[in-house]
Amino acid sequence: SAVISQKPSRDICQRGTSLTIQCQVDSQVTMMFWYRQQPGQSLTLIATANQGSEATYESGFVIDKFPISRPNLTFSTLTVSNMSPEDSSIYLCSVTRGSNEQYFGPGTRLTVT
Amino acid sequence: GQQLNQSPQSMFIQEGEDVSMNCTSSSIFNTWLWYKQDPGEGPVLLIALYKAGELTSNGRLTAQFGITRKDSFLNISASIPSDVGIYFCAGDRNSNYQLIWGAGTKLIIKP
Q1: Could you tell me which residues are beta bridge partners of residue A47?
Q2: Per-residue pLDDT for B89 more than 70?
Q3: Which candidate in A4, A94, A102 is best for mutational testing of the B interface (most B CBs within 10 A)?
Q4: DSSP code of residue B2
């Protein structure tokens, strides 16, 4: 497994602003993913964070709204841009080490007012 | 949209009872994973299954990879209060590390 931390753990933001969420892993990992989980719902993959290149986004998610960085093998950021109340959700990062087993961070609970 | 049908959606059980939940799909999967999520936490991997017919245990939890590769089930024996939470199945179809998720089964233990 891996020890994964996320910052912030929660935030309340005003609409129109942006928030950057950090994901830090205790050791190098192959792949990092960003998910959104709306209250009472399952997980929806936003994008795969690729080290040294642009992230790969899933249908319905775009780079202008959710820019992602992954400068090295242990760290990634997700920015939620120009937020609206519909962006209120839990944002989760996960990692793998070359298998399908994904390990998750504790999540960032975002509320947009 | 989701391609995994997870049932039941929720379960109310007595402490000590056995629990069973499953995921089905019309598509073949290469990997099945079972996760548990507690409130305010990220999902925690419970069991990973890689071969059709595989039966794997983790303490009181047992999961099986269906022989048709289109389903999986999770059993919890002799449930205890800390088993409360939401259980998710997830599967990989294309060996590309991207998982498809079930909607979750919420386990509630009656007082």
Answers
A1: A34, A57
A2: yes
A3: A102
A4: -
